[in-house]
Design brief:
elongated; 4 domains; transferase; binds uridine-5'-diphosphate; Trehalose_PPase; about 800 residues; binds ligand L263DTV3
Length: about 800
């Protein structure tokens, strides 16, 4: 393996990984192969990627090879082209023809999932999915063999959705970019895919994700937010603090390659021949892989209508359609071929004559020079894709039209419509009449208008080259990686479970502070009423054990009201702080009230009505009401609808019940809370602590604190309260956490003041189990005994006041609220 320093002095290495290598192999002997360029826009685009990288290609060589002699010989030939083959062997059919092009491709292009073939039990969704994963692993193996530290890995397309995850599992430091050449569908369509979540999660492990257009990128982000529940931001996707950058990089071509080709004598000769061949006729050109997405039948129908309605054009126009064979072993493609042949035959039969046929349909690929000649002599280029990632054929046509300035008729559903829309005539390919009219408009367009349209498009094609696309992507990948490096450092640490448990065992006076909602509650499925809130059943015995341990005090500090906490924790020997500390009790005592006299609660009824109104209109949302606060929660509702409703709800509140009230409004991730201006958890906890110490007549300071919850941002001051370096306004020295026995643990928060983060409440529940059974015999007591004496002496004359007397009422100006994010 080459060291990083060594590799820095060289050109940046780039591993381009795509299903298809830029060259496809044909066997010419036992150990000899011929190589020719692979068809398709992905290859064309990548050929133009900057030469400043030391690029190696990893991909399938276009053939199945099983014998070692053949594999070695091919690998050698490919090495000269900087290509490294991935031999897919037995998985190829179910991977490529099956999962990639029979399942993913139609989904990505809004064509829906095909029915499973129930007769063929050897080829099911599952078998194809398994083959897909195996194929991705084969790519992984080849990359591992060739990876050098510092390499950038740029993965391409829907064939390799698992590769980012596999690679990161192998080495989390590998810099990975992934680019999708096809469109990304609406979330409603993607949702139908059985393995949708796994696939999305894998792609999100990459550092940078690229799409051709803003539409595709936003479909992707939306799909992730809806299916995975992650957060979509202007940067991309944020999940547990990990940011996966999502950005738009429209691909281009290498325009000079086409400009130069058009000057070649061979191409000029071909142009002359073609002009003679079609003398007296306008040429409409179509160049597409014979793929359903390209809308060839729709193109033929539009052309048929044009001929039908424009008799005078019938023998003056010809449609030359190059239908490049593709994915021949996928049943849908076979059907398409006969459909297209049928249509071409019908139209030629209707409008042709002995000497002329309106459609010249070729089922073959053509060589590059001939393709350029065709592009150059065409009067109109007709692209009717039903959906297309970009469609580079449109770009190539423009590059070859410097002399002729022909017209591009372009489907509005091709990515290229976003970039060439100004110069092209855009059509909806499903609308046969519109296609027919566009053909007419293009054929009749004045020279001036053609000139102007061509100028606009040519300018774009020249400046937005494949080189620029590649450079932009790679430079963003560099930036993304260093940014995400910095961000990862800010992410809270993983909870060191063993340390938490060991320190717990060794301490003598522990305090466990827990949030309630989302921390101790049973994960909810169908929550409509606050009354439905239940304690996670897995916690019952654990909590009993913890609460009955004389060395442990458990406090639940919640926004919930007294009734709920009473109902749920009545049977435990536990401390409860309701409404963020407005009320406190231990379960054997009475509630101590802390609502200041003259507190303005006039807003409560009106707010309740607004919450009721929105709850009724937002399926699966609910609200909790207590004496001083109300929370509307939409975490079980459709996320986007919930967010939109939350915005409206806030407008209603500000315009009505809270317009003149002294309240704090807090917008949580999936909730809106309105509560009387009071204290945050961090402020309340000091007083609660003193009250606990007093009531329990503690003789030793609290020497261990574990604090965890799903707290609102404003309440996160509870996490910092216990930090030894934070000055506390306590009248007593009730804490002794100098030895680092303090664990603040946020649940699933990307950005938090807590020192540690866990993924979900399950982790907290799990840890509490472990604390409950922790072996306390290992605790050393001699030190703490002497500390206890000190503590008692220090506090002998302390002025003990009940917690209720410590409450200060925070004064807020009328209408003063927490900043809300809308
Ligand atoms: O490799 P194949 O199965 O033979 O298919 C050829 C390529 O088709 C798709 O191309 C896409 O990429 C183009 C460049 O970004 C874009 O202009 C076009 O709209 C897309 O359809 C496919 O995404 C590639 O992986 C294939 O290699
Ligand atoms: O006989 C042919 C005709 C065209 N092409 C190339 O195939 C690519 C098609 O790319 P596009 O983005 O239009 O669509 P895709 O086929 O990738 O979906 C273009 O670069 C064409 O030059 C080809 O390789 N052989």
């Amino acid at each position: 393996m080459v060291s990083y320093d060594e590799s820095c002095s060289k050109r940046q290495r780039l591993l381009v990984v795509a299903n298809r290598l830029p060259v496809s192999a044909k066997r010419t002997g036992e150990n000899s192969w011929s190589l020719e360029m692979s068809p398709g826009g992905l290859v064309s685009g990548l050929l133009g990627v900057a030469a400043e990288f030391e690029t190696k290609w990893v991909g399938w060589p276009g053939v199945d090879v099983y014998d070692v002699v053949g594999k070695n010989a091919l690998s050698k030939s490919l090495a000269d082209m900087k290509c490294i083959p991935v031999f897919l062997e037995e998985v190829f059919d179910q991977y490529y023809n099956g999962y990639c092009n029979g399942i993913l491709w139609p989904i990505l292009h809004h064509m829906g999932l095909p029915q499973e073939d129930h007769k063929d039990t050897n080829k099911t969704y599952q078998t194809q999915y398994d083959a897909y994963k195996k194929a991705n692993r084969k790519f992984l193996d080849v990359i591992i063999e060739n990876y050098e530290e510092g390499d950038l890995v740029w993965i391409h397309d829907y064939h390799l959705l698992f590769l980012p995850q596999y690679l990161k599992e192998y080495n989390n430091k590998i810099k990975i970019g992934w680019f999708l050449h096809s469109p990304f569908p609406s979330s409603e369509v993607f949702k139908t895919l059985p393995s949708r979540s796994e696939l999305l999660r894998s792609v999100l492990t990459a550092d940078l994700l690229g799409f051709h257009t803003y539409d595709f990128a936003s479909h992707f982000v939306r799909t992730c937010t809806r299916i995975l529940g992650v957060e979509g931001t202007h940067e991309g996707i944020v999940d547990h603090g990990k940011v996966t950058r999502v950005a738009v990089f429209p691909i281009g071509i290498d325009p000079n390659r086409f400009l130069k080709a058009c000057e070649l004598p061979e191409v000029r000769q071909q142009m002359t021949e073609l002009k003679q061949r079609f003398a007296g006729k306008k040429v409409i050109l179509g160049v597409d892989r014979l793929d359903m997405i390209k809308g060839i039948p729709q193109k033929f129908l539009g052309f048929e209508k044009f001929l039908q309605e424009n008799m005078d054009w019938r023998d003056k126009v010809v449609l030359v359609q190059i239908a490049v064979p593709t994915r021949n072993n996928v049943p849908e493609y076979q059907k398409l071929k006969s459909q297209v042949h049928g249509l071409a035959g019908r139209i030629n039969g209707r409008f042709g004559s002995v000497s002329s046929l309106p459609i010249h349909h070729l089922d073959c690929s053509v060589d590059f020079n001939f393709l350029c000649a065709l592009y150059a002599i065409a009067d109109v280029m007709l692209v009717t894709s039903l959906r297309d990632g970009m469609n580079l054929v449109s770009y190539e046509f423009i590059a070859c039209q410097e002399a002729k300035k022909g017209v591009l008729v372009l489907s509005e559903f091709a990515g290229a419509a976003q970039s060439l829309g100004a110069g092209a005539i855009l059509v909806n390919p499903w609308d046969v009449t519109e296609v027919s009219s566009a053909i007419k408009e293009a054929l009749n367009m004045s020279a001036e208008e053609r000139d102007e349209r061509h100028r606009l498009n040519f300018q774009y094609v020249k400046t937005h080259s494949a080189k620029k696309w590649g450079d932009d992507f790679i430079s963003e990948l560099h930036d993304t990686f260093s940014e995400s490096d910095m961000k990862i450092k800010k992410i809270p640490l993983e909870l060191p479970q063993q340390d938490v448990i060991q320190r717990y065992s060794k301490s003598n006076n522990r305090l466990i502070i827990l949030g309630f909602f989302g921390t101790l509650t049973e994960p909810m499925k169908n929550q409509n009423e606050e009354l439905d809130l239940k304690l996670n059943p897995e916690l019952k015995r654990t909590l009993k054990a913890l609460c009955s341990d004389p060395k442990t005090t458990v406090l639940v500090l919640s926004r919930s009201g007294k009734n709920i906490l009473d109902k749920i924790f009545g049977e435990y020997n536990i401390w409860l702080a309701a409404e963020n500390g407005m009320f406190l009790r231990d379960t054997i005592g009475e509630w101590v009230t802390n609502i200041p006299e003259n507190m303005d609660l006039d807003w409560v009824d009106g707010t309740k009505n607004v919450f009721k109104y929105f709850t009724a209109r937002t399926p699966r949302s609910f609200f909790e009401a207590s004496e001083t606060s109300l929370v509307w929660n939409y975490e079980n509702a459709d996320v986007e609808f919930g967010r939109a409703q939350a915005r409206d709800l806030l407008q209603y509140l500000w315009a009505g019940p809270i317009s003149n009230a002294s309240v704090d409004v807090v917008r949580g991730n999936h909730s809106v809370e309105v509560h009387a201006v009071g204290e945050t958890k961090g402020v309340a906890v000091g007083r609660i602590l003193e009250e606990i110490v007093r009531k329990k007549s503690m003789t030793t300071p609290v020497d261990y604190v574990f604090c965890s919850g799903y707290f609102l941002e404003k309440d996160e001051d509870i996490y910092t309260f216990f930090k030894p370096e934070v000055k506390k306004h306590l009248s007593l020295n009730v804490l002794d956490l100098e030895k680092g026995n303090y664990f603040s643990v946020a649940i699933g928060q990307a950005h938090t003041k807590a020192r540690y983060v866990v993924d979900s409440s399950h982790d907290v529940v799990d840890l509490l189990h472990k604390l409950a059974v922790a072996d306390t015999t290992t605790a050393t007591t001699s030190d703490s005994l002497s500390e206890t004496e000190d503590y008692q002496t220090r506090n002998a004359n302390a002025d003990w006041k009940p917690w209720i007397n410590y409450v200060k009422i925070r004064e807020l100006a009328v209408g003063d609220t927490e900043p809300v994010d809308i």
